[in-house]
Amino acid sequence: MRLVELSVTNFRSLGDVQGIPIHKQTILTGHNDCGKTATLDAIAFLLGERPVTDSDISDFAVGEPVRAALPTGEVEERRTVTVEGRFALSPAEERVLEAGPFLHVRRRHVESDGSYLEWQTAVPRNPALRNIPALKVIELRALASEVGVSLREGQPNVKASWVEVLEEHAAGTETVTDWVSAPESVSAALPQLLYFKGDAVESPDAIVRSILTAKLREYTLREETRQKITDLEEEFSGLLKDDALRLQKLVEERCALDAFTVDPGVQFRPTVSTLSLAAAAPGQRAVSLTAAGSGRSRRVSLALWEASQELLSEHAEDGIGGVIIAYDEPDTHLDYDHQRRIMEMIKVSASAAQSTVIVATHSLNLIDGVDIQDIVHLNSRNGCAYVQSLGAQDDDEETRRFLSNMALSLGFRNSVLLHERCFVGVEGPTEYAALPILFKLAFGYPIQSTGIALWDCGGNDGALSFAKFLKAHKRTVVFLVDADTMRDKQKKFNLDRLSKQGFTEADCLFLGDPHELEDVFSDDQWANTMNALWPRDDAQQWTAQDVGALRPDGKFSKSLHSMLRQSSSSAPGKKEEMVVELARRLREPSDVPRTLVESFEDAVNVARKAGLSYWPEGG
Hints:
The protein is α/β, with parallel strands linked by helices. The chain is about 40% helix and about 20% strand. The protein contains 20 helices and 20 strands. The chain is elongated and about 120 Å long.
């Protein structure tokens, strides 16, 4: 079984988080206390690897009636933690569970009651017929009378007989799809969980115990081993029958009861209970790792993580089960080289057929080292977590791949897509290269430090589609364009082209005085740059008057480039290079034209008001 989607209700900060996508490798990101560790703990609870207590119930929880699958007689509303998983089944699991290709399983913790594993399957419409083996003999007789069922001739008047006839009756009644108690076959098929924590608290022996216990349970899924365990469970259940019967009679006598039933069930779940680790450095005697320094323990832990991928890539032959490897902040206290080792380890671990790797991290190296499709970004509003993941709601794989490739081609790192406040699209490579230089000179700090992600749209329709996608996912997107964009139909970025992707003039900030970026620089600035970089072949000096004479034509940049090509053998090959070279020669903040500074200030104000806002449901 491979977990592909997770939903959590009423667990810590995860008040109501639905549809968290789980890929073969999933990176959970977000600020502190946004629910990353809670998500990993919720998975551990779902798989039966950790308990939930009443103190884990979310502060945002609301009362939920106890469902029909729980013990009868409960009438009060109790707060309930619910963790639901959608699992993809292997062909072998489909045969064993008679279900597929997907299976919904959930585990619930009911306040002051306990936890229950349930699955969604076809069950009798009559709730009374859904969990017959759990009923007591007196309840079975009453139910049989209610539905008109009696024992067949020769059947002994014992619980097994009543269960048999009632289940035969239930099999012939109308069914519905609902949640009911999960059978042992479902519990046994759940993936094994290896949960590694990157903080200093986790010791190597805990890691080894997790790895070996996972392997031990994997061995119990083999057919020959399962039969041996079943035989042992039946043997010990038989040995307990006399003891259970004595308890029944004693309680019936002392409490004056007509009947009291004790029906024990025995289940063996092997685990590695004790472990001792020792290590010896070259030329030294072996010492227990508990007595070693934290540095050695940390290195051993990382080596164990790497070793686990080899051990756990060998799954049971019949394809039952699988493994989920969860890392909580694995990069803690590690340098960049070790972080890269973890990145490789994650990729190798996720490559096995029935393995899933989930990593909670703040590390930009890890975030930028995977495909944006594999990142789930969590955020919180008033302490309540929600999913803020680009593409999380986009089910079409081709769409997600296109968006991922487009982000890569535009030079966006994953961390930028997830964390920047505002995306500012510019028309082409000229603006993309020159504007950061001019911004740094004008303000004294880089443009990216303001939360602005500058990107070259290049008039590309794919880039505009990506801008539309960002806007649809509640990211702030504006365009910094030439002032003549709205008027010139020949411009790559004209209003008609923008409007096709849902943008209007209100989404644009304008450059140019009066037409384009090149216009904002003075005649003297241009003349000085031209004399320094592109001198005239006739040894004459370029003058401000030469430059000024070109401005009335309206296509100033084109005219300027043509003049340079005609009179200077060192002229730039493309006119786009002119502004960049001019920008590099400016030295003082006052050299940046005021109209350009005002456009920068407008962009910064947009970024300050933007931020990572709350994404409402369905928005």
